[in-house]
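Researcher: I'd like a structural prediction for the single chain below. Treat it as a standalone chain; there are no partners to consider.
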Amino acid sequence: MVRLNLLTLLASTSLINAALAAYSLADSYTASNFFDSFIFFDGKDPTNGFVQYKDLKTAAKSGLIAIEGSGDNAAVYMGVDHKTKDPAGRASVRISSKKSYNHGLFLFDIEHNPGSICGTWPAFWLLSDSGKWPVGGEIDIFEGVNEQSDNKMTLHTTPGCLIKNTDFSGKVETPNCDVNAPGQGANMGCGILYPKGKAHSYGKSMNAVGGGVYATMWTSQDIRVYYFPRSSITNDITMGKPDPSKWGMPAAKFAAGCNIDQHFSGLNIIFNTAFCGDWAGDASVWDKSTCKAKAPTCKEYVQHNPEAFKDAYWMIRSVKVYQEGKTMSRRGEAGDAFAQTMPEMDMSLAEVSRKDNSSNVLDEEGAPVSGMDNSADAEDGLLVKRNWFTEAFRGWKTGIKCTFTGDKDACGYA
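Model: Treating it as a single chain, here is the predicted structure.
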């Protein structure tokens, strides 16, 4: 009986130094499970904002949170008090995911955001659970204050993390991620401003186009931020198979002079809408903005103009976290180990078997194997029993769970 090792076949066809990798869905936060997956913070605002964060029960009772729509059209609403003039601060919410992460591809589908309103400071971001800020790092994916029109993306770290202005479309405002970096304002970190006037990246302009998807890719090599306005969301994202290799240049790329794994670990997803505080309410910021004409200080404006904050709300379609699948590697030299794994796959190598004159696959004893008539695959008396590489790739691309054990076939094929 003729029998060949698959490794030899692959080597002979010069499949050298190729690799395939994929992202598989790890967590999906949608209207059905969103509030159950986050913790509501109700303490004093760490950024000294003129805000009162409410717990889950209070927020629900007062209408600060809700689920809007139903079925596939359901979305998460998180707003602020826009009716009272509470001297203690405007009611709002700040939530943190129960689960923390180390690396991942984070997709935020945002239909509406609270930005471009005087006094507001909305953000969604990733923050270390170390409890010793900035140890463990902070990644600000979406953030702005007052009537800002373009998104700002920022990292906050301990000393030793720098970025360079290369391979992204945004503009570096501050290059040192250290919150105590000399020559930068306190706690500024390394910030990249989204290209001005492009793609409706923040606030009212983003809301006007129906929002979009922010994607943050965090690996050991770098941290990247992409943005896709609603009309430009890529098909791979829509189909739940994100492929960053097809997305082109990111808006921000934090790399070059930073050991990512040393500075970032155990990060939680956070959403919040603050008011005033250390950034929006800073006199040097308020006085230089158009908001100064509305009130002498941020606090005065926020307290006495509740109606201004009716549109200061989040409408979130989903937050999805993907993890990178293990890499399928192919080595071209005979004798090399052929290691291959894919998301949700457990695979053993297939072999080549001889066919008899009845187009039956023969087992090791030379007897026909039931159900294995694959004459179209025969060539020179040899047959690969359902070429596992082809089936594995097809199953992986289409989301079929594939299992390879012994003589069993792949992706549901008997």
